[in-house]
Amino acid sequence: MENQIFLDDAVSLDVLKNKKVAIIGYGIQGRPQALCMRDSGVDLVIGIGSETRPSWQAAIDDGFTPVSIAEATAAADLVYILLADPPQPAIYYDSIHDNLKPNSTLAFCHGFNVLYGAIKPPKNVNVVLFVPNGPGHTVRQKYLDGSGIYGAISVEQDVTGNALDMVLALAKSVGSLRVGSVGVTFQQETEGDNFEEQVLYGGVIHLMKATFDTMVAGGYPPHFAYAKAIRSLRTVVDVMDEIGIEEYISNRSSRTCEFAVRTNGPRVVNYDEVQNIFDETERGEFAARWMQEWELGMPRLHRMRRTGAESLMEQTGAEWREKFGEG
Ligand SMILES: NC(=O)c1ccc[n+]([C@@H]2O[C@H](COP(=O)([O-])OP(=O)(O)OC[C@H]3O[C@@H](n4cnc5c(N)ncnc54)[C@H](OP(=O)(O)O)[C@@H]3O)[C@@H](O)[C@H]2O)c1
Fold first, then answer.
1. How far is ligand 1, taken at its centre, from the CA of residue 86, in Å?
2. Which CATH architecture has domain 5-183?
3. Which of 58, 114, 240, 251 keeps 20 to 30 A from 86, CA to CA?
4. Pocket of ligand 1 (CB under 6 A)
C-alpha cells in the first residue's frame, strides 16, 4: 500500500456499520474530526480524561455525552487516539491498553509514540494510522465545503484482515479521500512530519523573521516590512501549488522576480544543514531532544514563547490586523 493513493469511490463506510468508534481526546484534531465523522453517520463515543478537563464541556456543547477514556475504549470497535502526543503513553497504559477489545482497531493520528516504542499495542488488535495533512479547523471547513484535506494512512498490524478497510473508512468519514490519501509507513509519517516541521515550518518562519528584522534595522517602516515578510507569501504559495513552481516563476511573476529567485534564492538555504536535520531526525535525535524538553516542563519553549510574543514583528502584526484586517 506504500505510495498508493486512495480515493473516495473505491472505499466504503460499510465496514464501520454497526461498529462503535471511540474518539479519545477532543482538541485541535479530535473535535473537528469527530464532527465530520458524526455527519458521515459514524456511531461515536467520546472519551476524555476527566470531567474537569476543558474538552469535557466542549464535547457536551457539541451534543455528545463524553465518558471516561477507559469506558470509551472498552465500548469501541475502533479506538482513535487524538490526545496530544507527549501525555499519550501514560494515558494509554493507564486507561486504554487493558481495555482494548480483542480484534478491535487502534488508530493513531501521528506515529510518534508507536515508532519510538513509548506505546506498544497488544498483538491482538489492528494498529493503523490516519493523519489529515492540515489543522483541525481546516479539516472541518473543507468537509463542510464538500471537499477534504489530503491525508496519510498506514497499517502497522493487521490481525483481522481488514485493517486497511477500517483506516480507509476512517479517512473517508472525515473527507480525506475526496482529495486522496497516500499510503505510508509509521516511520515515514512520523519522521517526515518531524522533518517538515523543523526544515519547512522552522525555516520559513525564521526566514520571515529575518526578512522583517533586517528591513526594520535597515530603516524600513515596520508595517511595510511586515507586509513584505508575511503577507506577500500568502497568495503566491497557493498559486504555486495550483500551477506549479516553474510555471509561477516563469510566467506569473515578473522577470525581475524570476532573476532574483533563481540567482539568489539558493544562497539563503543551507543544504548541508537541511541534510544534517534529516539525518538527526532519522537517528531519532530530534525525538529524544523533544521528549527531554517535554519531561522538563518545556522550559526552553516557554522562554522562547515569551521572547516571540514581545517582538516588534508580533506587535506590528497585531496592529496590522487591527488596521487592515485580512487585506
Ligand atoms: N494539531 C494539528 O494540527 C495536528 C495535525 C496532524 C496530526 N495531529 C495529531 O493529532 C493528535 C492530537 O493532537 P492535537 O493537536 O489535536 O492535540 P491537543 O489539541 O493539544 O490535545 C488533544 C487532547 O488531548 C487532551 N489532553 C492533553 N493532555 C492531557 C492529559 N494530561 N490528560 C488527559 N487529556 C489530555 C486534551 O484535553 P483538554 O482539551 O481537556 O486539555 C485534548 O482533548 C496528535 O497525535 C497529533 O500529532 C495534530
1. 9
2. 3-Layer(aba) Sandwich (3.40)
3. 58
4. 25-30, 49, 53-55, 82-85, 87, 91, 109-110, 131, 135-136
197 is in an annotated binding site: yes
pLDDT at 285: 96
Domain with CATH 3.40.50.720 in the chain: 5-183
CA-CA distance, 164 to 144, in Å (whole number)? 25
Burial of 155 (0-12, 13-18, 19+ CB in 10 A): buried
Tell me the CA–centroid distance for residue 81 and ligand 1, in Å.
Answer: 9
Burial of 118 (0-12, 13-18, 19+ CB in 10 A): middle
| Mean pLDDT for back-to-back runs of 10 residues, the chain (327 residues) | 90 97 98 98 97 96 98 98 96 98 98 96 98 96 96 97 98 97 96 96 96 98 94 88 96 96 96 98 95 95 94 92 80
Is residue 97 part of the annotated active site? The answer reads no
Shortest CA distance to 212 belongs to which of 203, 221, 201, 199? 221
Question: Binding site annotation covers 98?
Answer: no
Instruction: Quick: pLDDT tens for 206-223.
Output: 999 999 999 999 999 999
Query: For residue range 13-26, what is the model confidence (pLDDT) as tens digits?
Result: 999 999 999 999 99
Q: Computed from CA positions of residues 34, 35, 36, 42, in that sequence, does the dihedral angle turn out positive or negative?
A: positive
